[in-house]
Amino acid sequence: MPVELRAPVRLAEAFPDLVQPMKEALDEGGERNLAASVDELQVYALCGCGDDFCGSFYTRDPANRQTRTIGLSRPPLAPFAVGVTDGGAIAFVEVIDADQQTWAEFKQRYTALLRGASAGHE
Ligand SMILES: [Zn+2]
User: What's the predicted TM-score (pTM) here?
Assistant: First the structure.
């Protein structure tokens, strides 16, 4: 079940380390429009599975259906994937692994956001 944030947070603010590798990987994969959208992405919800190895989050209302998944790889973020809606918007990002320091920082931010969001639901 997705855990929605009380208010969407800009991706660049929530997970700054992800922005550049995401843009470069999408650009390299010929996904110019998606690459251009990364700066404007907002984090709406986090995956609530609670798995230590899970770094998935939603960049649209989780109700949006994803019709395409693109697997990407770009150090220090590798591999990762984005789910795209029919309308061609990135709706979901799955961070699968990264170098140790990037992953540690990412998970710290992720957990802090998750705690904040869960506290809002109690
Ligand atoms: Zn998960």
Answer: 0.93
CB-CB neighbours of 10 under 10 Å: 14
Domain ranges (residues) in the chain: 2-112
Distance 51 CA to ligand 1 centre (A): 6
Taking the centre of ligand 1 as the mean of its atom positions, its distance from the CA of residue 7, in whole angstroms, is: 20
- 12 is written with which tokens? 């660049």
CB 83 within 8 A of CB 91: yes
16 CA → ligand 1 middle, Å: 20
- Give the HSE-up count for residue 62: Cα atoms under 13 Å, Cβ half-sphere: 13
Q: State in Å: Cα 95 to ligand 1 middle.
A: 10
pLDDT tier, 120 (very low <50, low <70, confident <90, very high otherwise): low
